[in-house]
Amino acid sequence: MSGEEAAAAVPQPPEEENKEEEVQQETEALEKPPEPTYKCLVLAAHGGYDKVKLQVRKGSPTPASGQLLVRVRACGLNFADLLGRQGLYDRLPPLPTTLGMECSGVVEAVGEGVTDRKVGDKVMVMNRAGLWQELVVVPANHSFVMPEGMSFEEGAAFLVNYITAYMILFDFGNLRPSQSILIHMAAGGVGTAAVQLCKTVDNVTIFGTASGSKHETLKENGVAHPIDYRTSDYVEEVLKTAPKGVDIVLDPLGGSDTLKAFNLLKPMGKVILYVWSVCNMPLATLVQDLTGVKTHSCLITSLAVGSANLLTGQKKNLIALAKTWWNQFSISALQLIHANKAVCGYHLGHLDGEWELIAGVVASLINLYKQGKIKPKIDSVWPFEQVGDAMRQMQDKKNIGKVILVPETPKQENKEEN
Ligand SMILES: NC(=O)c1ccc[n+]([C@@H]2O[C@H](COP(=O)([O-])OP(=O)(O)OC[C@H]3O[C@@H](n4cnc5c(N)ncnc54)[C@H](OP(=O)(O)O)[C@@H]3O)[C@@H](O)[C@H]2O)c1
Fold first, then answer.
1. Helix (H, G, I), strand (E, B) or coil at 136
2. Is the distance from the beta carbon of residue 311 to the nearest atom of ligand 1 less than 6 Å?
3. I want to staple 109 with a disulfide (CB 3.0 to 4.6 A). Which of 69, 150, 312, 388 is the partner?
4. Which CATH number does 165-350 carry?
């Protein structure tokens, strides 16, 4: 036996054996690909901007039958997300929950039975919630293939705003050539989409409200009469130019503004109320929250109130809630008949069983996009890490067009461009 062989045959002390095991484990760990992770933005509790937390989850979800796995490249921020954060959006699942009603990305896997989508397709997706996530699993019919040339940011800005604007203008509003319309929040996501869609009809006169700093953009977009609702009375301003009123008012405000909208209509005019509603909050709960006094369940009336007027700060404002509810518009069938006017209500979140209807609208919108008649206007792009700043941008009324969130930090040149 050589000297070396003799040394190998000698039993090793236990520490040496452990060391060898450790080295082997480390080598194996290095050889194994790391477990995949994905980021998501979770609403942990209702309240201010800090309630939306960035989480990193392990693994990769698998699509079941009829579903898709999508790697998300951009997400849309909607007014409903601001309301949801404050506990004022009725379609949000119980907390904690991942926020996000729309996104765009690339199909990474398809579940059994999915024949009209394939791995690699670029898609836009809409869902009740849960899309502010790097990887999402969604029913295939909640996705729409993006047209050629559309960017992921545009894809994330398309569905909620344009479907809403299209359905309220054309399905309910029946907008026709030479009519006139008042569009509130005309520089925001839905507002910009509505203005572009109005321009697809000949000779429509558009009145649009927005903060004064946005009026140049409104004019460029085709709003003939921009109105700064913060410094002037928008009803007076409309009547100065159109003494008989307008044919259509798009009303995302609710409260006392709906009565103003109704009174601004010409005979045969329509007001389309499209607030994201807050419903089933028992009045007894509101009274208790406001006064601290516990009332009995005789106050069972529920609140169903409008949205934009409710958002007055970072947290839920119960006074604004009560005021909006108190001023809520109400009309009888007889009054409607005498006035020769129509009042319509629209809530995309409550159309979530109507995917065929929605697919028809999206097909029309994609055609308009391909013809260059509509194009989402992107206000700004924010990484997931800055979701609070993105929300602040919208809530501080700074945005012109759509606010976008992305899982990856945007490249400097894109940021500067935006
Ligand atoms: N029912 C539905 O299905 C449906 C679907 C989509 C959207 N909506 C509603 O449509 C409206 C527009 O939604 P969006 O997502 O496109 O948002 P957005 O218009 O981009 O919202 C932000 C803009 O709204 C204006 N604004 C008016 N009152 C505000 C307030 N109290 N707090 C903050 N901003 C206020 C601000 O601009 P200016 O002050 O300069 O005008 C702000 O820049 C919202 O009321 C939303 O709830 C409803």
1. strand
2. yes
3. 69
4. 3.40.50.720
